[in-house]
Automatic annotation (TrEMBL):
Residues of the signal peptide: 1-25
Keywords recorded for this protein, A-Z: Hydrolase, Protease, Signal
GO molecular function: peptidase activity
Transmembrane residue ranges: none
Protein name: Aspartyl protease family protein
Segments forming a coiled coil: none
Gene3D superfamilies linked to this entry: 2.30.42.10, Acid Proteases (2.40.70.10)
Keyword Disulfide bond listed: no
Taxonomic source organism: Pontibacter anaerobius
Chain ranges of the Peptidase A2 domain: 66-102
Amino acid sequence: MRSAGFSILLCACLLLLFSDIKVQAQLLQDPDTVYFTSNRKKITMPFKLVHNLIVLPVKINNSQELNFILDTGVRNTLITQLYFSDSLELKDSNRIKIRGLGEGYTIEALHSTGNTMFMPGIQGDNHTVYVLLEEVFDLSKRMGMPVHGIIGYDIFKNFIVKINYSSETITLYRPDQKIKKKRRAEEYPLYIEDAKPYLYATVRQHNGDSLNVKLIVDTGASHCLSLYLPTDDRLALPPKVMQAYLGRGLGGDINGKIGRLQGFKLGKYELENLTASYPDEEAVKLALNIAGRNGNLGSAILKRFTVIFDYPHQRISLIPNRKFKEPFNYNMAGFEITTPLPGANFYVVSNVIDDSPAKMVGMQPGDQLLHINGRNTNDLKLQELLNMLDSKPGSKLRLRLKREQEIIDVNFVLQSRI
């Protein structure tokens, strides 16, 4: 069984492990410089928020603007897919093998140094880029738009980064700037270890026990929380869980279970009755002994705040926004969708969960979604469609599907399984 709505991404959990240790040591020493191209003290740019993930325009060398997910979980810039219309010249490159979280195999990639990276008002010199030689994430199909790669540490390490999820804007400040913060802002220590940001928080489990956990702060994960059970004997599955497909890492599929926590607390802010995923041990075995971490904190929580990442001073600030008190819903319809033509409002069922409402009415992978609750899907953006699937229990869905040459109408009610 696979869970709709949580299979979008765990790409932020990437753990690059190079087959040649000498190459790895050299990569860690690669210097690069990212800087403002003017004397401005800050630069603000809009981003697109899809599946809770931040998508920004980036140019590499002479390329046109490419779409990159901003991901605190990755060290190096990663190109996951290029299209025939994309032009990109890379500097010095060689083939390597890499692997990451997931149950699978190593894949080949190009490692390229000496590149130039451009964002609006920003330039990065001697930039290191990896290019995957096979598409393993299907990011574009899952995001409903062309997505070319992932970028992270190169941006965060050089600036103070303010992410306003409400206005969908990101502001980069010079590291020596003092940022005016609202009275509700609360500041916490941020621990930068191996280029990744960590913080300590408290989870309250189903039995009422509270447990301190160390989490990687993961803007590239679309879920709320992911907890690694083998890292602490006190971590336990909730009494009601569902088997789930949690996403993909570089090494392949990540499977596990989904349940609910009573609460999650960070400083004075506490969220209640939130969803949590529990990856299978095999899928995350490479991460179990890294930095003593117990899991990761994803964007379904982060989007409820304006977040200020301050890597240079190792701190993070959170300011709650209007989404702070919204309930933690998830896709209860029992099916997943992809967009075979990224950028077009063309949606196809990619997976149907056993024993789900969608399965009970006979939905099948490959069904094209034509209408939902009387609305033509040609008029719906992917995020609008997902919001309809992430509604509350008891909501009714009326779907019109196309299966080969047959038109099929199905109706069902969303049901919570956790």
